[in-house]
């Protein structure tokens, strides 16, 4: 328990309603069977309310038989709490933190938080990057920049005075080191200036920085300008807005009406194409690090959106540690939380600006899901883990995804003013999964088919594909070419001009030589057996990029297959694993003349004929109760037998 029983019921009730309000996406009113968006004050009150949530649930509330004054109070309250801008300190997160103060256990759960120099030194030692890079404390207390963590890593030759010069802008910050000594770096652009004198000072500064990190033939740096030569945040936002409408379905009639236009609607959203472009760019960066053995410097205005996405994706592909659950959680802490990704703005928790709401982190999880789906044995976690992680963006009791930077978090927790008498608040992190799920439910987050140690003999790389009533990928067609394709340049001039906001249109076209190198690297890797503890590349051809069914289809009963899908295959595989384990135990017991003690592997996938193809989330009926995994952020599970008997369930541990 997190707090005294006297407060428990009130805080739970308030938390459930706050979660619904914070995950609110759109509000509609139904008048005479016609649905209209609901804004501001109403002259006529509706007979039904429809709420679209950010996790793609569609909630219906019938008001037809409610008294008029009650309808007025309910509708006015919902409009106020879902559409009015909020203050940060008014979020339920802080009320919950006050209620559980001094009674919360350590939430780290072996995840490296990267909030101490020791954590960064450990990561440098793990990746063997400590020879060329160092941890700096120059931003301790956030005295240099509030858009940087208190501690971070830079190239060893870099002086602390250089870090302070432009408040941390224009500084190459270390992300990760490859086994061959190459490294992945990121850099935020300098403020745009119109004054020629200031521009010259910035040019000289960047020229000095570049010479520090680019010293041929010993150190070669290739740059990738993400602000001008890759996806824009507007493209991501527009694509996802179209894509999510495919799954916000009110009733069966609407489902079947859109079914005949499924392929055209899916393609026109461009969401799968954006995922493909992200994976392709990550492969290109991986080729530079792995095959060319050169450093890669990612450039972005604030280095906190696409830099986070690509640096994380590259590490998942190249570093098997990041494919373990603890390693993946530590990666998110390092690149996203300490990388100052603006979760508060990008998730629009305060509902202050729809323009700032861009699902960059969800795009990253979708890209990782493609890898998990294509190479299940390489990951210690399942797609269910990724799904509940995406849901955790909107659970109002965790601080992990509720701030724009560590500085903002520490300021609002009271950690900066240590002289005050009041103690700082203690906020939960999402990595303590026991807060959300009972131990039996947590087994759904672990992949029982994970290959823990590399083996010489490899099986078939391609696993069984999940076949659904709706095809989850587009037919094989030529992918859309980006009007602003990415490219690498080594010239100092190009780096300086991009960082100063000067774009050169004649340099935007891709290099044919680089495309050939990337294609050869990609084809060579896929022609060999997969080493699940080595480099891991995705297939990016048209049909290989699929819809993340478990996340997007789970609330649509018509999309489920009772007793079918990959969940049925997984159930049989786990039964075989248990049988092999039992036989092995009998052999060992006979060899040692001991009685066999059969230990049954934990499995919630028995009786697969009763399960939906999208276990453990989906509902099989539009009016059924609640899914196996609670969506509220609090533990709400019965026994194992009860899990198998429920009629509301969802998909495949299919990543496993």
UniProtKB/TrEMBL annotation:
Protein localization: Cytoplasm
Pfam families: 3-PAP (PF12578), Myotub-related (PF06602)
Keyword terms: Cytoplasm
Compositional bias annotation for Polar residues: 471-481
Residues in Myotubularin phosphatase domain copies: 114-552
Main location: cytoplasm
Coiled-coil intervals: none
Family: Belongs to the protein-tyrosine phosphatase family. Non-receptor class myotubularin subfamily.
Protein name, entry field: Myotubularin-related protein 12 isoform X2
Lineage, top ranks: Eukaryota, Metazoa, Chordata, Craniata, Vertebrata
